[in-house]
């Protein structure tokens, strides 16, 4: 009944979307929460109207202007982000279902339906399959030392200029730039990937005017976007060719999207390519060819031979026994659970396969002569759609560890990273602790352990915040 009520209320919210967007601020429906964005430059009438739409009871706008958010907190809103004069509050839909308002919410947004805005959290770009930088004048470049140099031309009269972005969690304290005779510079160590950034000039935020790539920042403004490259595509020969382009699964086979440049006896282009399996070909004056320097190929459904690139980390899958099996396959979230695509090789002790997988959290199973089984060597599991699968984290960046509880039968971890599914992740018991490693994106996470059905906060974590159940959630920040 609770689940049905939740679904009904979300549909009620969606049905209340109106075109009466506020001039400043917005109320947005997220995946599992409401987002209330307040611009402190709003007039009192505008703020009153927005708070009324959000159902905030007894809101004191004068107090909010002064930094007192007690009326919002009383209604279950939590301050999750502050940027310049913009505040962002979140409210859980779970809490909303437990205590629904008397009237439906009016959902308003100046950027509702904007695919790019909803692709990731404000200030943090979502995973993108590939990227190529576009500048009117190149002001960001890679140095021989491996650092990335950001250059802001002009503003010689400024007293202080900072570089802030997703690489330093939008810090207003770090990233101080050095003044030169023609502008300001800062060197940053970046790993390959996509980054968003801005400059802070005498306390005022400004995007890079020379950078043609932009993402909405979630606060009615834009961030500049920079790709740190990790791949060079090179095609030798073809001295008499007029035009050579690159197309593949990463750019939806757009034959004109990526143009190679002639350099000496080669044609080449550099770009950022996300971890994963990518197929591609070159188009030479209208004729498709596979990459002659890449022996890895695959035939597509139409019979074309495509070159293949696998980027990620090698994971060794092993299944002992089953010597009489005819075929053993592997399927998981990394290949969209296609059952007959990844075949293991028979060994003296069973079956094995090294596989390159992109960073992330994945459930998987073996398929032995058509029978799906979990990995008997892996005690970590994940619940997906009510189905228990073996679990692997590729390039994990945080390990949850709970000491003691040696007599417990099973311990799960649940949090905002898995929509608080109590069966989501099963931890492994090793020695005197229970552990599980996850690959988490930068940001704030709330979590708890479930010990034989009993929820507890992390006793080793001093960071916590109260929740709607009169208890506490542990808090984790991933840089």
How would you describe what is shown here?
The chain has four domains: 2-112, no CATH class; 130-228, Immunoglobulins (Immunoglobulin-like), CATH 2.60.40; 231-311, Sandwich (Immunoglobulin-like); 314-324 and 353-362 and 372-478, Immunoglobulin-like (Sandwich). It has six helices and 41 strands. It is flat and about 75 Å long. It starts with a helix and ends with a strand.
Concise description?
This protein is 9% helix and 44% strand. It has 479 residues and is mainly beta. It is flat, with a radius of gyration of 26 Å.
| CATH class category of the largest domain | Mainly Beta
Which superfamily, in CATH terms, is the homologous superfamily of the largest domain? Answer: Immunoglobulins
Distance between the terminal alpha carbons, to the nearest Å? 39 Å
- Tell me roughly what share of residues is in helical segments: under 10%
What's the count of strands?
41
Domain tally? 4
The helix count comes to 6
Strand content: 35-45%
Main sheet properties: 12 strands, antiparallel
Taken from the alpha-carbon principal axes, the silhouette is flat
What's the rounded overall pLDDT mean? 83
Structural class assignment? mainly beta
Which architecture name of the largest domain does CATH use? Sandwich
C-alpha Rg (nearest Å): 26 Å
CATH topology assignment of the largest domain? Immunoglobulin-like
Q: Give unreliable regions as ranges.
A: 1-23, 102-122
